[in-house]
Specification:
It comes from Meyerozyma guilliermondii (strain ATCC 6260 / CBS 566 / DSM 6381 / JCM 1539 / NBRC 10279 / NRRL Y-324) (Yeast). The chain is mostly beta strands and 437 residues long. 4% of the residues lie in helices and 38% in strands. The strands form 9 sheets. Strands 21-22-23-25-24 form a 5-stranded antiparallel sheet, with no helix packed on it. A 4-stranded antiparallel sheet has the order 1-2-3-6. A 4-stranded antiparallel sheet has the order 7-8-9-12, with no helix packed on it. Strand 14 and strand 15 form a beta hairpin. The radius of gyration is 21 Å and the shape is globular.
Length: 437
């Protein structure tokens, strides 16, 4: 209930369209700016230009990196007419951004990336060190943080055994790290082959320490909840993990999709390997890829409209169940935006929540689609899940050039730069209104 970071009032419990966070403005931050953020299942990390890390959200597993246990639980007295299930009662320390405590002072190094799983937070420093806190969970409950020694780590701790790391990629309860030599390390829960290898039950706790994968020459990594990706310097895209909805980009050897289907080791996605993929985002059962030329490809689960493809334009590879109901699109398929189809719209970044998706145009407009019940799309009240990419239109963001976007379990976060030239901002709006016909 605290995922939005807008404070404890009942009016902040459910927000249907993008709203500026009043605690993270330049004025509140002493003229500093937000430079990065990461969304976990129910929490968010934010990095400002002074190197401070802010956190908010649920803190049951210590993911916020600060003590919230003594905070007063407030009730919004201005909403006395609210119904019982809308009466606020949010923890002020969890629902309001607060600084992560105990960050190490590292000489000549700064934080360059944040990462958030469902139950763990991590930081990457410019010297290649990784710090983390929280815990990993598995099907049976808490797996832990460090072997049998630490179940829940509540303050930043250096991950030993990792050095010269250049990128992190968080899943639901696992983490990937890429080093400067192109080697990928994985740790956390591996019950769905997220770690790229079979994990024996008696060795389950050994997965809490990073181990190098059988991958080399890698330049980029990404992860969904239970599946992962890596791109090598020859632009081949590898995938592994859970694949029951084709979220890994293909069917099994029989051309089928089955519950519990797994890709047990890194396998090339042939459809993507010649597209010059620059970025990949993934949710629980779906995935997206952005090319260097600004095109977006989507694949995976369909029944909550995660892939953004209308039913009348589904590819032949679409997988249907025994009743003829569309279940998944297992082959990467190019996304079309706007009423005119091939319209020249290009994108600069993409993002996924558990069952919803975003693409951001090269001039900072956001399109959203997928599961709509929790308002994570930012489109306001809609009657059903959103089948096709739909532009977010609201007062708070209409003059913003969005630079960053991310989705959590049931919420989303974006960051942008205000377009001060009003004529330029209005021209941009007119461009997309014409595009959408």
């Amino acid at each position: 209930m605290c995922e939005l970071g807008l404070g404890p009032a009942a009016s902040t419990k459910e927000v249907k369209r993008p709203r500026l966070n009043p605690y993270l403005t330049k004025e509140k931050l002493g003229n500093e700016s937000i430079v990065d953020f990461a969304a976990g299942g129910m929490h968010t990390l934010v990095l400002d230009s002074a190197g401070n890390v802010w956190s908010w959200g649920g803190n049951d597993g210590g993911v916020l990196g600060r003590d919230t246990s003594g905070a007063e639980v407030l009730k919004d007295l201005d909403n006395a007419s609210d119904s019982d299930d809308e009466d606020g009662d949010l923890n002020v320390a969890e629902s309001t951004p607060g600084k992560v405590e105990g960050l190490p002072p590292i000489a000549d190094a700064k934080i360059v990336q944040l990462a958030a799983t469902d139950n763990l937070s991590a930081l990457l420093y410019s010297n290649g060190d990784v710090y983390a806190w929280g815990s990993f969970r598995c099907n049976e409950g808490i797996l832990g943080f460090l072997r049998d020694e630490i179940k829940i780590q509540r303050s930043p701790m250096k991950i030993t055994g990792l050095k010269n790391i250049v990128q992190l990629a968080p899943g639901k309860d696992h983490l990937l790290a890429l080093d400067s030599k192109g080697i990928v390390y994985a740790w956390g829960n591996g019950q769905q082959y997220q770690l790229g290898r079979k994990i024996l039950e008696r060795h389950r706790y050994k997965t809490l320490e990073p181990h190098a994968m059988a991958l080399t020459n890698i330049k980029y990594i990404a992860s969904g909840d239970f599946h992962c990706f890596a791109i090598d310097h020859d632009d081949r895209v590898y995938t592994w993990g859970l694949n029951q909805f084709g979220q890994c980009g293909f069917t099994n050897e029989n051309g089928e999709l089955e519950d519990g289907s797994l890709v047990s080791k890194p396998t090339v996605i042939e459809k993507l390997s010649n597209l010059n993929i620059q970025e990949i985002a993934a949710g629980e059962h779906h995935s997206m890829a952005l090319t260097a030329s600004g095109d977006v490809y989507t694949w995976g689960r369909y029944d909550m409209k995660e892939v953004g493809i209308p039913q009348d334009k589904l590819p032949e590879s679409t997988f249907k169940d025994a009743h003829g109901k569309v279940r998944a699109v297992p082959v990467p398929t190019k996304l079309q935006v706007g009423a005119k189809g091939e319209n020249g719209v290009k994108f600069k970044t993409v993002g996924c929540g558990s069952h919803h998706s975003f693409s951001v145009t090269d001039d900072g407009m956001v399109y959203a689609w997928g599961f709509a019940d929790t308002y994570a799309l930012g489109l306001g009240p809609v009657e059903s899940d959103v089948e096709v990419p739909t532009r977010i239109v609201n007062t708070a963001t209409k003059h913003e050039d969005i630079q960053l976007i991310a989705g959590g379990g049931q919420f989303s976060i974006s960051g942008g730069i205000k377009i001060d030239d009003e004529d330029k901002a209005e021209d941009r709006l007119e461009k997309y209104e014409e595009l959408e016909g």
